[in-house]
What does this fold into?
Amino acid sequence: MTGELTWSPAATDAEVGSALTTAFAQEFGGEPDGVWAAPGRVNLIGEHTDYNGGWCLPFALAHRTYCAARPREDGRLRVASRQAPGHTWEGEVGEITAGAPGGWVAYVAGVAAVLGERVGPEALGADILVDGHVPLGAGLSSSAALSCSSALALHDLVPELAGVDRAALAEACVRAENDYAGAATGGMDQSVSLRAVDEHALLIDCRDFSLTPVAWTLPEHEVLVIDTRAHHSLADGQYAARRSACERACRTLGVGSLREVHGREVEDVLAALSGDGEAVRRVRHVLTENTRVLDLVGALAEREADEVGRLMVASHVSLRDDYEVSCRELDLAVDAALAAGATGARMTGGGFGGSAIALVARDAVDEVAQAVHAAFVDAGLEAPHFLHATPSAPAHRVS
Ligand code: ADP
Ligand code: MG
It folds into this structure.
């Protein structure tokens, strides 16, 4: 007996909205002006390409982070999260700096500070209560769901921000995460959370963050998320190391970004990097991954599930062997899902733990999840959690 599977369900806007309004009254007194929601995401393919000016293909989950908010006249910000009880923060928006406040509050305070640069910090005073329904730290971008839900709330509450569009809000969230929360993030997560199209994946060209919605054409298949529950602490340092290897390669190649060599023969580009084995492997991943993203878009248009699956597996192998960002748990999730009949599988997100995704025929989802669960138990690992990933709506006002 290997025990029950654990599924992380998506909550409905109506359920969370009314519970959060009640909780807001307990936390701050009175009523919020509204409730906003922003989704987490999975990335179908295109990993570690965003900060290299390449392409990625995420979609928004039905799992969202919610915030109830009300403006204040005094330029002060109060922030609380139902996931961090007893850690309410309060301070002047004008006094928010990098790392102060720190921790999770920085994702919200950073957004207020960045938006405050446009219209003056005194305009950004607010009371904000957060409730996250994206698993935290699972590689499904609860961080962007948090920053984007508060950005949209502040946008809608502060009349002076009316002209700021969603692309600019996504940029503000990237800056909040980079500069205030100290989290290296390349922009994919914030773009999809704020600018997704329901029932579509989003092809993001990270050179200029232009977007192309891509219809999900495989109704017989589901994307199953396997949250491995592993969080290897080397993630941040290794992410920075991967970025700097790519920057070094750009200097050697004399280009501003690896995007500039897209379309050249990969072997010719790699030949110019010979002698720097690390750069060769990292660049080979980025260049081949960009091609796989575009190929997968084509395979979706042709409704070729097997080809989509093949490209996902090739992406995983490249991330595992060339980019070296996988780990035992992610490899096990991918291998077990494929052995149980998944059409494709790969790690998703930055790596070193977090989640894998599997493309699975709808009638085989439970069987594949069961097999992955059993493989983890047999290996002596904590049982993974599972999510049904459905291409869903972007950030929106709930009430
Ligand atoms: P991911 O984005 O993949 O979930 P990150 O490490 O980037 O993982 O972001 C997780 C962090 O975001 C948490 O450790 C916490 O600081 C913050 N966070 C996200 N959602 C919430 C929430 N609902 N309440 C408080 N903090 C949150
Ligand atoms: Mg994150």
